[in-house]
Amino acid sequence: MQLSHRKMAGRQASTVVKSKRSTLLVFTIFLLFLSLLFYIFTSFSSSSTLPLTIEVSRNPSVEYSFVSSLEKFLTASKSKSSSPVPDDTVRTDATEQALKKLDDLISQREENRFYGDENSFYSPVRVYVYNMPSKFTYDLLWLFRNTYRETSNLTSNGSPVHRLIEQHSVDYWLWADLIAPESQRLLKSVVRVHKQEEADFFYIPFFTTISYFLLETQQCKALYREALKWVTDQPAWKLSEGKDHILPVHHPWSFKTVRKFMKNAIWLLPDMDSTGNWYKPGQVYLEKDLILPYVPNLDLCDYKCLSDSKRTTLLYFRGRLKRNAGGKIRAKLGAELSSAEGVIIEEGTAGEVGKAAAQIGMRKSIFCLNPAGDTPSSARLFDAIVSGCIPVIISDELELPFEGILDYRKIALFVSSSDSVQPGWLLTYLRSISPTQIRKMQVNLAKYSRHFLYSHPALPLGPEDLVWRMIAGKLVNVKLHVRRNQRVVKGSRSICTCDCRRPNSTSSVPFS
Q1: The pLDDT value given to residue 391
Q2: In terms of DSSP H, where are the helices of 60-156?
Q3: Hey, how many other C-beta atoms are within 10 angstroms of the C-beta on 164?
């Protein structure tokens, strides 16, 4: 009996031990499971934020500031050797014999390229940069550099002139990259060629915005006429009537007095402005021209900034509320939104104080209001993008840069003007956007910001790179119109194009 009790006690003790072991095993497995979940979560989290680290961090060896980059560029230009780069820019009016020679060379080059290399259509865009007299190029850059500190110089609407030039300095960034030594260039989408017959396109390096703002009116108009004559005297211009030439006219006021005579060229623009306030009908259209982003006013909100940002404001706007033309909607939006909870609407001020206030405001906000101004576009859109603030675009006539490559629906909200001014509509809509969708758009903003940061040297997937990728898409159509125009019988009934005009509707070029 006693033995039986001992056996039973032993069995019970064994069962208790086994039970404890089972419990410990289950607990251990549970801890391992929790650890695995934590690892998966942290891995996912780190993988989702890693692109922000890569995409948003600035490259310390690259210059992003226009003023700093220009200083280095001009200093380097003074120290260059006197031996010129091989160049065959024509200095005088082209003769018929010169036109025929260039035409034959182009034809031979294209035939060799087409039949000699099956990958020819996938090669980089070939650009010939005109070697224009310094009064159109370096002299204007020096003028900007030497007067940059005179910030009291304002436009009629109160904007600092030199800051406006910086916003529209796309002509500098493109030219500085094109003429840099090939060993220092990083872009593979474009190469500079030094023979005109090798070129797909011709770049005109005239600083139209600097000349408009920093020269006296009559001096500026005279320089415009000189630039016009100089370019249109080139044999390549005469062969194509300018269809394969690229002209940066990024400020809508610049080059205005003579640009109708260069309407065939590919214009680099801030927007199309279909209202007709800045461009005449038929001068600009998407098939011919290219929209380029403004240079952002604000500093990039990098990975640390994005991580640290506490975005407590729902909707933010800082700027002038009273504008002309399509910008009249600003006043209506200001009246509708100014007293709403979670919304900051404030009148903008120019200069460093205004810049600092806008930067703080955008970095604290989830959404940034981007209504039309005097023109459909403004630098505010790109300020919002680099600040990680989701743009709310209220500009019915707006055209966007690189839209053939970038999908703006991933980073911005588009609202019609009529909806935006309905009482309560806009805020109800913004509050309906889920946190998940907001986070997704913020991640995309971080990824997209590199596409709007001009730099020297120009970086792959930066705005300069996307310019040439978009230009490459125009090449076949440009060649079609150039060749067709060269063989069509003058005066014949031909298919009408986008820029048709009645005969003799364009007067001769004013070369006075």
Answers
A1: 97
A2: 66-79, 96-116, 138-147
A3: 20
Locate 347 and state its tokens: 């009148």
Task: Give me the residue spans of the domains in the chain.
Answer: 66-78+88-295+468-486, 303-453
Q: What pLDDT is recorded for position 185?
A: 95
3-state SS class at 190: strand
Q: What is the CATH number of domain 303-453?
A: 3.40.50.2000
Q: Phi/psi of residue 73, each to 5°?
A: -65, -45
SS3 233: coil
pLDDT band at 152 (very low <50, low <70, confident <90, very high): low
SS3 readout for 388-429:
CCEEEEECCCCCCCCCCCCCHHHCCEECCHHHHCCCCHHHHH
Q: Which amino acid is present at 354?
A: G
Q: How far is CA 5 from the centre of its chain?
A: 89
- Asked if 343 and 313 count as a contact pair (C-beta separation under 8 A), the reply is yes
d(CA 252, CA 124): 30
One-character DSSP codes across 449-476: GGGG---BSPPTTSHHHHHHHHHHTTHH
Nearest CA to 200 out of 88, 101, 91, 110 is that of 110
- Fill in the amino acid letter for 300: L
Residues 168-174, mean pLDDT to the nearest whole number: 97
Residue 188: Cβ within 10 Å count: 11
Give the whole-angstrom CA distance, residue 175 versus residue 193. Answer: 14
Handedness of CA 472, 476, 477, 480 (dihedral sign): positive
Q: In what order do the strands lie in the sheet with 313-319?
A: 343-347, 313-319, 365-371, 390-394, 413-414
Q: pTM of the full predicted structure?
A: 0.80
The string of pLDDT tens digits covering residues 295-316 is 999 999 988 888 888 899 999 9
Percentage of the chain modeled with pLDDT above 90: 53
pLDDT digits (tens, 9 = 90+) for 321-375: 776 655 577 888 888 888 889 999 988 776 788 889 999 999 999 999 999 877 7
**Both tokens assigned to 255:** 């080059």
Q: Which residues contact 416 (CB under 8 A, 6 or more apart)?
A: 394, 396
Q: Which of 414, 170, 408 is nearest to 294 (CA)?
A: 170
